[in-house]
Amino acid sequence: MTKLIISPSFKRAFKNIIKKKPELKYKIESKLRLLSDNPYNPILRTHKLKGKLSGAWACTVEYDCRIVFCFEQNQETLEEEINLIDIGTHDEVY
């Protein structure tokens, strides 16, 4: 299980999405659990990003909801962690 690190920008975007669409909360939490268990689970449709977000990755919550994240190595434990950067619609996060 990979540790998820929640950035302030992700937390802010998550709160905004939940205000607009409260029914997404459980779907997002479920996808975050899947991401923590196996970032490459086919259900997530994980893919590498290009352009200004080069080096970051994204996965799908539902048709028009994406989670943007980076794989990082913890300097103390040397374990891989997932840094959650942003969440929102395709146009909002890309």
Q: List the quaternary state of the chains.
A: single chain
Number of DSSP-assigned strands = 5
Gross geometry: globular
> Architecture, CATH level 2?
2-Layer Sandwich
User: Helix- and strand-based class?
Assistant: alpha+beta
Q: What count of domains describes the coordinates?
A: 1
Strand order of the largest sheet: 1-5-4-3-2
Helix proportion = 25-40%
Please identify the top-level CATH class.
Alpha Beta
Largest sheet: 5 strands, mixed
Average predicted confidence as pLDDT: 95
What is the CATH homology-level superfamily?
RelE-like
How are helices and strands ordered from N to C? EHHEEEEH
Question: Uncertain segments of ≥5 residues (pLDDT<50)?
Answer: none
Number of helices: 3
Q: How many whole angstroms does the radius of gyration measure?
A: 13 Å
Strand content is: 25-35%
User: Which topology does CATH recognise?
Assistant: YaeB-like fold
Pfam families: YafQ_toxin
Protein name: Plasmid stabilization system
InterPro entries: RelE/ParE_toxin (IPR007712), RelE/ParE_toxin_dom_sf (IPR035093), Toxin_YafQ-like (IPR004386)
Keywords: Toxin-antitoxin system
Question: What's the short story on this structure?
Answer:
The chain is of the alpha+beta class and 94 residues long. The chain has helices at 8-20, 24-37, 90-93; strands at 3-6, 47-48, 57-62, 65-73, 80-88.
Q: Could you explain the architecture of this structure?
A:
The chain is an alpha+beta fold and 94 residues long. The chain has a single domain (3-93), classed as YaeB-like fold (2-Layer Sandwich). Helix content is 33%, strand content 32%. The protein contains three helices and five strands, in the order βααββββα. It has helices at residues 8-20, 24-37, 90-93, and strands spanning 3-6, 47-48, 57-62, 65-73, 80-88. Strand 2 and strand 3 (57-62) form a beta hairpin. It is globular, with a radius of gyration of 13 Å. The N and C termini lie far apart (27 Å). The relative contact order is 0.23. Keywords: Toxin-antitoxin system.
